[in-house]
DNA sequence: GTTTGAATTAAACGTTTGTTTAATTTTGCA
DNA sequence: TGCAAAATTAAACAAACGTTTAATTCAAAC
């Protein structure tokens, strides 16, 4: 199913980069063709249309990411705390290593109302929540986590923080006029801070007995 | 400076709604004109161009939001914990009450590389951080907050969480086929959960003594 | 070497876009 | 009422867009 020729992959990679940096709508097929050094007609020839190219991009990265998430889901971990740490690592590493796709997806997600892309994104959001839920429940079962944790809240914090921090880094890097190398180093540095503090924050929150239980 | 006629405000409000829901690029001037029941030429006549209309929208909402943030900055609060609670309230309420603009801004922010919009967004991000920083430092001064708090991290968590939760709510609401009223009630419910748990989480994190100080 | 189908190309197509024009209507003021 | 400026309109404009066409090149099989 997902077997693309080298030329198709070249087009997809080039398109992903341009879509992420300039936006889907502001990237013309001619832009992609020029950057990938292929003829304009090749996109329609291989993918059918610009929309289908976007769909192909989503499918490709979704199968990779959701597969990874599902594998984690069936891992055996020794403690609930390790589970939480592991999940934070997986989310951060995935969002960081697939920054371009993640940027494109988040952007498109905010204006999509239905169709195959909507279904894919909804499916991924559900899987994200399942993963967080599993870790939380295992900690609750053995009594080390508080009982009134809200998973919808937690997964929003997790994903939202990473994306927001990466966006902030891009802005700071541009403001400080960092070059590509410096910017990536800056991102990496802040991602590691995020990782460390997010783990601390989640642990503190999950083990903290709720002081306003009756609210 | 910011004095617009009723017709100009009508165009701006209509444009904001369409930009937020369909995206800036996918909304044509004809779409706006039709929805606002004005002639297509009126947009260029009043604002100069579509880009300038977007700039006007940004200016309008930015002056409001940044003014509000700066006012908070000089408020007197009794305790550091109250300061944190207050800031969380302000961010949540602002992001929630200006959902449409916030959605538009976040979306455009991810593909803007320079220009007046870039400067405005950067300015707002800086102000956000200043606000968080002030609350954290006041708690550190009197010794109730830990010393190694990272403000860049905290502000990312705060803004990122709210936006991500609202985006998740939109998806859930569409999946559950809620109508407009039900969707807003669903959002409101989850925002209140977010508010409560975010305050707990921040407090737990800020007062939690760091167990890996030497890391 | 010929044939067959895929790959590649330059050119053209029709549509939509943001914007402008030029004419007309409305408004506010003397 | 008369007049000048502002507001509003329908029509037209050029440019950019995604896509298609029709011709040509390429590669592999026989």
Automatic annotation (TrEMBL), chains A, B:
Entry annotated with the keyword Nucleus: no
DNA-binding region per Swiss-Prot/TrEMBL record: 28-47
Keyword check for DNA-binding: yes
Keyword vocabulary terms for this entry: DNA-binding
PROSITE patterns recorded: HTH_TETR_1 (PS01081), HTH_TETR_2 (PS50977)
Residue intervals of the HTH tetR-type domain: 5-65
Domain of life: Bacteria
Annotated protein name in UniProt: TetR family transcriptional regulator
